[in-house]
Amino acid sequence: MGPSRGSLVATVAVLHLLLLAPSMAAAFNYADALAKSIIFFEGQRSGKLPPGNRMPWRADSGLADGAQYNVDLVGGYYDAGDNLKFGLPMAFSTTMLAWSVADFGKFMGAELPNARAAVRWGADYLLKAATATPGALYVQVGEPGRDHACWERPEDMDTPRSVYRVDANKPGSDVAGETAAALAASSIAFRRSDPAYASRLLHAAMEVFDFADRHRGSYSDSLSSEVCPFYCSYSGYHDELLWAASWLHRASNNASYMTYVEAYGMQLGAGDDDYSFSWDDKRVGTKVLLSRGFLRRKLQGLQLYKAHSDSYICSLVPGTSSFQAGQYTPGGLIYKEGESNMQYVTTATFLLLAYSKYLKSSGATVSCGGGVVSPADLVALAKRQVDYILGKNPAGRSYMVGFGARYPERAHHRGASMPSVRAHPGRIGCDAGFQYLHAGGANPNVLVGAVLGGPDSRDGFDDDRGNYAQSEPATYINAPLVGALAFFAGTTRK
C-alpha cells in the first residue's frame, strides 16, 4: 500500500517546519547556549574538582576510585544522573567533544579553552584507564545494581566502587576501540595547543587499538552482568574497530590505518546502510568521517563511504527518495527512540553539519534519487533541530536546563535534585535521598546546560524526575551538541 493522505499531509507539514524561511528563524543566543552546554560537563565531573569549577554546588567525589585495586582511577565523568563511571559512553562523549573542537573549534571563540578542558577531563581519565596496567583496560567503576538502589549525592556515595577491566582473557574490542578513538580524536584537539600531550594521547590510542584488534570480542560477553543492560554493546564490536582505525588515520596520517580500513571495512560493517549514530553504534559516524578523506583528498578507496553517507543524509531529508517517514515528531524533531531520544537528535545534527562542511570544502552535494541536496540544506535542517532544543517547538520549552525563559526543572539527576553539601553539610544516606527523588518541587540545584532525554513522538514532555526516559541528562546527549552550537554561534548573525 502507498502512504495514506494523512501521512502525506504530515510529511508535508514536517517539511514545512524544517525548511522555514530565514525571516521566521528564532533569534537564539547560540553563544550562550554553547557556554552552558560546556558548563554541564563540569557538573558531571568525578574526582578532585579544580578551583574554577563552574558548578558551585558540586564538590569532590570518588577520590579513592581504584585504590583497593592499587590503581588510580580518580576523575572522569559520571555518564548521566547516577554516580557510575561507564567507559563506553564516557569514551564516546570524549570522542564527540574532541570532534567538536577539531571541526568547529574555530567558531568557539572564548569558549575554546573551556571546550578543551572538557575534552581533557575525559582524556586524562581514559589515559589512566588505558595505561595503568599493561595488557588491560579499565572500563567501569561502580556496581550498577547497588548504585541504582540508592539516591545519594556523589559527594556522599558509599556504594561499592568495584572496578572492572578487559584484557586478553576477557576481551572488549568495543569499549577498547571507542577508547582508542577518543584518545586519537583528543590528540587532534590538542595538536596545536599542547603538542606533547597530543603525542601522549596518540601513542596510547595506537596501543589500545592494537589491543582491541588483537584480542577481539565484545565486553558485553566478557562482563555481561556488570555492563548489561546498562550499556551493552548491542551493535557488537566491529563498528568500533573501524571507527578507531578511521580516527587513528586522521590523527596520525599513518597509511597503515587506511590499509586496515580498506582491507577490513566490509567485514566490519562498511557495507551496511544504517540510520542512527550513538554511543553504541558508530557505523554512520565512521562513514561521514571517512567521507572527509574522499571529499578532501580524493582517496578512492573511500568512495563507498560517501555513497553510504549520502544514503543516511537522504533518509533525513523529507521529500527525497530515501526519506524514512515517521522519523520526525509533528513539531519537526528527529525521532528514533522512546527513551532518551535526544541523544539521536544531537548526533544526527552534528553529522549533518560535519558532512555539510566536508561537502562544501570540495564543492560537492548529496544525490538523493533524482534530486540534489546542498550543504546549505543540511545546515538548515541541523538548525531546525538545534532551535527545537532551545525552545522553538510546540511547547515553547527549552530542553536545555538553564537556557531560555522556560526549561525543565526536575532533571532526573541525583546531585541536582538534592541539597548541595554547602547547603546541607551533613551526610544524606542511601535511602534518605529518595525523598528528593519523589519530591514535587523544582531541583534545588540548576544543572546548567544539561539537555534532557526529550519529548515523545508527539512532542509531549513530562517534567517529572521519575520519568528518566524523558528527564535524565547524559554526557553523550550534550557532547555532539557542543559542536553544533559552536557552528551556529560562529556563523549566525545576531
Overview of the molecule:
This protein has about 500 residues and is mainly α. It has one domain: Glycosyltransferase, CATH 1.50.10. It is about 50% helix and about 5% strand. The chain has 19 helices and five strands. A hairpin with a 2-residue loop joins strand 4 and strand 5 (about 370-375). GO terms for molecular function: cellulase activity. InterPro entries: 6-hairpin_glycosidase_sf, 6hp_glycosidase-like_sf, Glyco_hydro_9, Glyco_hydro_9_Asp/Glu_AS, Glyco_hydro_9_His_AS.
List keywords for this structure.
disordered N terminus; two-stranded antiparallel sheet; three-stranded antiparallel beta sheet; mainly alpha; 19 helices
Task: Draw up the topology in text.
Blueprint: H1 5-18, H2 30-43, E1 85-86, H3 87-104, H4 112-131, E2 136-141, H5 144-148, E3 163-167, H6 173-189, H7 195-214, H8 219-222, H9 224-227, H10 238-252, H11 255-264, H12 283-297, H13 303-316, H14 342-362, E4 366-368, E5 371-373, H15 375-390, H16 414-417, H17 434-437, H18 468-471, H19 475-491
Antiparallel strand pairs: 1-2, 2-3, 4-5
Helix pairs in contact: 2-19, 3-4, 3-6, 3-19, 4-6, 6-7, 6-10, 7-10, 10-11, 10-12, 12-13, 12-14, 14-15, 14-19
